[in-house]
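FW: tagging you since you asked about this chain on Friday. Here's the raw sequence from the shared folder, copied in full. Didn't touch anything.
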Amino acid sequence: MKRLISAIFMLKDVPRIGWVQRGVPLTIVENVATHVLLVIAFSLLIAEEVAKKRKINKEKVLIIALLHDVEESKINDIPKFLKEKLSYEDVRKEILRDTFKDLPKDLAKKYLGYLLEDSIEKKIVEAADNLAMLYVAKIYKKNYPGVKEIEEFALKKLEELAKDVHVIKNFKF
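HL: got it, structure written out here
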């Protein structure tokens, strides 16, 4: 349990690198812990709406939301273009296994499965992740026009995700 709690705690010290690369100063940039809180909030709101139309596991949604970037406590926030060039998923699996090592085996297996398997719950969190990015981009773009690229990426991704998670069309900033 100590490894997981420590990893979550350390996320407060990991800056969201995409913002930094687009001109947001390190002194004010969003950190991964703040991002995770936003993703949890959006995940909860989306899950409540989706649950009105179909059966979903809200606990699973919140667990995925909480843990979706936990590996970044060990390897920092890696830019998306670099993740695509590396075998990032393999590295991520190893870090997650290590992070969950001191949890009861059934819990570690459950969490790892939630994070790695495709499911509607995972798509809800992915939508929430992009809504969180979009929300922060709207705040930053007033002073840092370079973040428009992230805003456009999030909008495109949300458009794709709307095929499975229809309710995200209702979220406007």
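FW: The two ends are 37 Å apart (CA to CA).
HL: agreed, and The chain has one domain: 2-73+85-166.
FW: great, closing this out.
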